[in-house]
Amino acid sequence: MQWMNLNEQTVYQNRWFTVNLADVELPDGRHLDHFLIRMRPVAIATAVNTANEVLMLWRHRFITDSWGWELAAGVVEDGEDIESAAAREMEEETGWRPGPLRPLMTVEPSNGLTDSRHHLYWADSATYIGHPQDDFESSRREWVPLKGVPDMIARGEVPGGPNGGGGGVGPSTQFLG
Question: 29: how many CB neighbours lie within 10 A of its CB?
Answer without folding.
Answer: 6
